[in-house]
Fold this sequence. Notes:
This protein has 149 residues and is mostly helical.
Amino acid sequence: MTEIEVEGVGIYRLPNEWQYGRLGRMRGEKRHTAVLAFGCGMTVRQFNKLPADKQHEVHRAYLKLMSPSNVVPLGDPAPAETRSIPRGHLSVDQKLAVGRWLLKVKAQLPHGHFGPWIETQKGLSRSMASQCMRLATGGRQDAREELAA
């Protein structure tokens, strides 16, 4: 499912790559409101003029699209030797796929071996790996405990 009809508002879609780029410097509630507005094809000002119940319906549509049950599971990643990491700027989908792959690899390695392993991967810095993994876990800090369980 990639879009949801919100009665009285229109179709809600998750923002595209260009729209996410425009969100770059926003933080907190402003960013979340912008994600909801962009997904409806509105400006933030237009979205804020909607009645509160319509804003809540759009938020529910966003949550439904972001639900783990809506995410298509990735197949088994290619072995590290054969997997190529794209160079340059990565799309959100590419970062998400790389992040999921890295989390799976990290779970299989003994404690303390993941950092050195990252350094052997061409085209992937520790900061990019961290960013991809953070995106794949939804920004949760407690992802390490979830992986250990």
